[in-house]
Design a protein that fits this description.
The structure holds two protein chains of two kinds. Chain A is α/β, with parallel strands linked by helices. Chain A has eleven helices and 24 strands. In chain A, a hairpin with a 2-residue loop joins strand 3 and strand 4. In chain B, 34% of the residues lie in helices and 26% in strands. The chains are: A alpha/beta, B alpha/beta.
Chain lengths: 452, 241
Amino acid sequence: MTKTTQKYVYTTKKGLNKRVVENISYQKKEPQWMKDFRLRSYEIFKQKPMPTWGADLSDIDFNDIYYYMKATEGPANTWDELPENIRETYEKIGIPQAEKDYLAGVSSQFDSETVYESLREDLEKQGVLFCDTDTALKKYPDILKQYLATLIPPADNKFAALNSAVWSGGSFIYIPKGVKVEFPLQAYFYIQMQNMGQFERTLIIADEGSEASYVEGCTAPVYSSNSLHSAVVEIIVKKGARFRYTTIQNWSNNVYNLVTKRAIVEEEGFMDWIDCNLGSRKTMKYPGFILKGKGAKGEVLSVALAGKGQHQDAGAKAIHLAPYTSSRIISKSISKDGGRTSYRGLVHVIPGAKKSNVYVSCDALIMDEKSRSDTYPTMKVKEKDVSVQHEAQVERLSDEKLFYLTSRGIKKEEAEGMLVNGFIKPIIKEIPLEYAVEMNRLINLEMEGSVG
Amino acid sequence: MLKLKNLTVKIGKKTILHNINLTFQKNKIYAIFGPNGSGKSTLAHAIAGNPLHTLSPQSNIIFNNKSIKKLSPDKRAQQGIFLSWQAPLSLSGVNVFQLLQIALGSKKNPLALKKEIESYAKDLNINTELLYRSLNEGASGGEKKKLELIQAAALNPKLIIFDEIDTGVDVDALKLISKFILKNKKGKTYILITHYNRMLKYITPDNVLVIMNGKIVKQGGKALADKIEKQGYDIFKKSKS
């Protein structure tokens, strides 16, 4: 990739201290409550220990990271308003193309600040709010104040605290009562500079009876030193609403990807996480849902691929708080060239959550002797009147299947790609077509070994 | 067109085929008979290039005047060798149409290919939906064999080895399969591996070979097949000693 130099209007110094946090808030001209929230979060961050489980994070040097950079003077509303170098970057990753097709809206995070976003007029007419979270703080402060950090408080974990202290950008979505958005809303996140931290904060509210979906893609060029991506995503799914959140993560292999994602689902609501993790050096991510209302449903479909030097520690969290709730967790992981995947899951059913259903299935495909896969399922089922099903399977790539395909004239690498794509197909068929095609292409590239 | 020279094949430490020398002519049909465990499938897999089979240094496989001994299975397939599997594998998330598209690359346009394989499916009396479902998942024995034939027909190779295409198949399916094989015969060499005579009611081989304990013990014409049918493989055991 040729390197485009990006001009930043404002950059904080490397490292993190109280001054930096205050400065971020000052630069953004935030209200006092947000500044206080950030400072409070920073204190929590300092106190919280690093997680002692999951991926090894001892390499992260919090003092070697830029926490905030401002790329332009403010979000641009049309494509042409964007500075040329940013436009080039976006064109490289195919954003305008995707938008020209039938995507409902684009909101792209260019490092810290969202610089481009658009929303189809019909969505605006329906009352759908979709903007970056910084803009939302200015335009809809009451909604933010009401919901932000209610699902993932700063004290949830060290990285949630960090995000709360230094967050920038991310998406804010509000779908009004009964509104159904047919096409996926989408955002693209992109780390541009080395030693950069990206801390987007996403808040989504699907009001009663509404339906919508959101797709985020993540990518970064390869740099010599490590970057940190630590996002927080909170989703409120109200009574009878349905929301689907799809992630295609293909960070370069020196990004630490430590993300907290959680949804709360009210009566008869449905939350669906589709989480595809291809890139990054280490990922720790367990999209979760709290099934709060009677009959609420939640689903996590997750795919992880770990190649050389990568550890994908991914999974799901399902909390059943009400009767007739159901959760479905399907995880498929692939490890190759010495990579490591772990499934880590928690299912918690409280007493009284009667007639609830739990289904967990995790399959691992191990491509060679050097690679590894582990499963860490935790089930806390405190109610007797529930149905719980758990399946786990580990398979090695079959030589016989490879021979079958190669005996048809297909190259070994292509055959591997076909088998891996076949393995994850039950999940990939759930994501929008253009992303599914992209996923298959990325998998094939991984199999050919041409992607770092 | 195909010559096996001193072909000795091991799987792991066990030698399965011993010093086989055979020549297969263009356009002919060969039937290879042998009891279970005689090495018939190993012979088929060795020709197709199964990487788990080890050939002795003296062994050689010549296809169209070139040694293919060191070629990977995909290269052998591209030169025109096709193996129809005895027990075709199930592949999750991979269907026949997609498999053939990838195998053929730019040689055939996808729409033409789609039309072509759908017409084969019709000839073989199977539901065209099977072409777009995970390969062989939930398919019957007969359907699996027919899906092998469809792949063979679309790839249009020069040599097809049918490894027990007649097992696990009922009489009606066998008739259809035989008819299909003959219809698409033009310019091809066939090796039919079988352990009983059923199929030869419909297809008459030019040559019959008998393999036992990893060795070719007898060669002959159609009459040899009839003899096996009547008297079983024991006659060869006696003649050997």
